[in-house]
Design brief:
single chain; 503 residues; alpha/beta; 2-enoyl-CoA Hydratase, Chain A, domain 1; elongated; disordered N terminus
Length: 503
Amino acid sequence: MLLGLLSPAGAAANGIRANILPQNPPTVKAAVIPCKDMIDDGLYKSIRRRTQLALNNGVEYLFYEISTYGGTLEAGDNISKYLILDVGKKAHTIAYITTEAISAGAMISVSCKDIIMLENTTIGDCAPIELGGKLEGVEREKAESFVRATFNRAAEENGYPAVLLKTMVSMKTEVYRIKNLQSGKYEFFEGDLLPKDPNVYDLGNKELIVRGNELLTLTASSAYEYGIAWAKVKNLAEAMDFLARRDGVVFAGEPVVLKTNWSEEMVRWLNSPAVMGILVMLAMLGVYLEFHTPGVILPGLAAVICFAIIIGSKYLVGLANWVEVMLFISGVILLIAEIFILPGFGFAGILGILLILFGLFGMLIKNPPGSLPWPESAYDWRLFINGAMGLLSGFCGFVVLAWLLAKHLPKMRYMSGLILVPAAVKQGGQSQISMTAPAESKTAGVKVGDFGEVISTLRPTGKAKFAESMVDVVAEAEFLGKGTKVEIIEIHGNRVVVRAAKN
């Protein structure tokens, strides 16, 4: 049995009429679209995909299953506009609240034609917030006015009490409920706009609903009583029964449930600050190992994969546009050219690093390709700070792991060949250089002026054999093929620089 379906308070507030079912009621299809957890751009795109799939299959009743504490203002507004301006003209939309619909969740709910709530659920509190501070004065009014307009749009379209929806966004507004003696229905008024005629309104029994220092958050019972929710039920079957009786329709079996697919969940998961931090850490660690292990491909490949995942996931949720992706790729190309082609480290390397940093910075903020990526709204700053925290945590994790690898990896018997060991200077100008595969003696040294032969092609790093020792070396401004005779011209710590022998 529906809870409170025919209660006088709910019927008066909502104007519910008991429809008489026609002899041959039309059969309609229904679908359930879960909208849970964080309201973000990924969920917005998922809702569009699943809604269109339902419409393509002839679904007339769309149940949006709401269970969220909110999310980003932009995503909530995008979903709200989509439901009102597009979907609402093609099907009947119902916000089916199963736990809570707070903040952006409330915005989405009132954008549906009906709100139906399970027992003991809640809806409300959509005041804008500023991460790390308070919105005051003009800034608060600027943010609140936009959200109020969104709620007013929903109230006008779907018949919800606009005054009550306003108090979900802004404080300092008292709201009273007063019975209209002529219609028998209850109406809501702000404290400074109370009616004056006692012959039309029962002014002596006016009821204070919202105090001036409160944001409105309602339980299912209160939402039903005040006309926000059209029904309070125990389960989905009761919700469908209520709609069938009210609208004079018959549902064609159980509704299909259209869940998010694995790729949508993965993209949202990859863009979380924790996962983004891990990806950044692994990418930087891969670059570090690649520079310290000439000839080893796996660390560099892992770094490329991690960077591709970072950029791809940002692009899919709309944070990375093509300009920022091109800047990042150009920076990587310049940096590779500086390391492997150009001698020393100069303009190309510095420009490459700057382009990479600018590209990553731009991917933390959603902006059109032609505008400067700089946070403006509270949402932008929250998005930027979350992304920056992910990058910072990844960098800190990289520093710790790189230090541990540099300290302990060379001492491990089977892993010591994966990283260069710092050189120890000996008497006579000899140095103990990283020798990844010494033929006989592990203590044989090399010095400036020694001649050897290239074992693996130097591009420009690789291996060369000096007497009985194979040493990791770097060619000076050229690629040297296997078998080339080389001469050591410089030794700087663990960096051994060679050039082609002149004789």
